[in-house]
Write a structure and sequence with these properties.
Layout lengths: L1 H22 L1 H56 L12 E4 L4 E3 H6 L3 E6 L5 H4 L7 H9 L4 E7 L10 H10 L6 E3 L4 H6 L3 E2 L2 E4 L5 E5 L15 H10 L14 E2 L3
Parallel strand pairs: 3-4, 4-5
Antiparallel strand pairs: 1-2, 1-5, 3-7, 6-9, 7-8
Length: 258
């Protein structure tokens, strides 16, 4: 009898325990909670991947920085000076070998065409055009009465080759140069134009803009003049009301002695 009662009690306990396990709300929600946690882990992983997007955004800033560097280079270039065809010609006020002051704006305001030659009387490439060929003097003779003004500018610093008032006074007399030689000993005007060679030429139109910049002609040797005079060609076209067909060439000669 006791044995039978024990078996019945044990069966009852087991049944109650099983019923409790299947109906427990805590245990029923346990699995979804773990699944949700797993999804949160995926969310963290996604957040980490989004972090890669931030790195990508940081990388995209690089071109902007590079662009800024390019802009800085542009500013540096502007500081160094230099003009190109179509640019407004920088004004200058310089004194010639006779002590007379000249400025560009006076000529352009009068509607003149201006020809500038960078000058060094001791440069062989300059000498060839003032010797037997008389290239520069002939230009002044042929175009001086057509509203064209000529200046030679010496941007050599004191003590440098071909620089100084006395040396240039002598050159003007020896070569019978019919136009002023302007002294630019601090080099400000030369640098403003970006002059690098003697003789380097600039033609400025009636509108005050650079119409031609470059060599005097097509022969870069130091012995004889070339067949094509780019300055004469530019002047003929400007005077005829035509656009300058060759507005720039590579200059040749001695370096400007800044």
């Amino acid at each position: 009898m006791k044995t039978l009662f024990s078996h019945l009690a044990l069966s009852t306990i087991i049944g109650i325990s099983a019923l409790a396990l299947t109906s427990s709300p805590v245990l029923a929600q346990d699995a979804p909670t773990k699944q949700k946690g797993h999804e949160n882990e995926k969310g963290k992983q996604k957040g980490h991947d989004d972090g890669k997007g931030e790195h990508k955004g940081h990388d995209m800033d690089q071109p902007a920085k590079d662009k800024g560097k390019d802009a800085d280079k542009g500013k540096d270039a502007a500081k160094k000076g230099g003009v190109a065809p179509g640019d407004a010609a920088p004004n200058f006020t310089l004194v010639d070998t006779d002590g007379k002051e000249h400025n560009l704006s006076s000529a352009t305001q009068e509607g003149k065409i201006v020809v500038i030659q960078w000058f060094n009387p001791d440069c062989p490439f300059v000498v060839k055009h003032y010797g037997a060929s008389k290239t520069f003097n002939d230009l002044a003779k042929n175009y001086g009465d057509k509203g064209v003004v000529f200046f030679a500018i010496n941007s050599g610093a004191k003590g440098k080759q071909g620089a100084g008032k006395d040396r240039n006074v002598k050159a003007k007399a020896d070569w019978e140069i019919p136009y002023p030689i302007l002294l630019d000993e601090n080099g400000d005007t030369g640098r403003a134009y970006g002059a690098k060679r003697t003789p380097e030429m600039v033609v400025i139109g009636k509108d005050g803009r650079v119409a031609y910049f470059g060599a005097i002609d097509d022969d870069a040797g130091a012995d004889k003049p070339g067949k094509v005079n780019y300055v004469a060609k530019a002047l003929d076209e400007i005077l005829a009301g035509k656009p300058v067909s060759t507005s720039s060439t590579k200059g040749y000669g001695c370096s400007v002695k800044y």
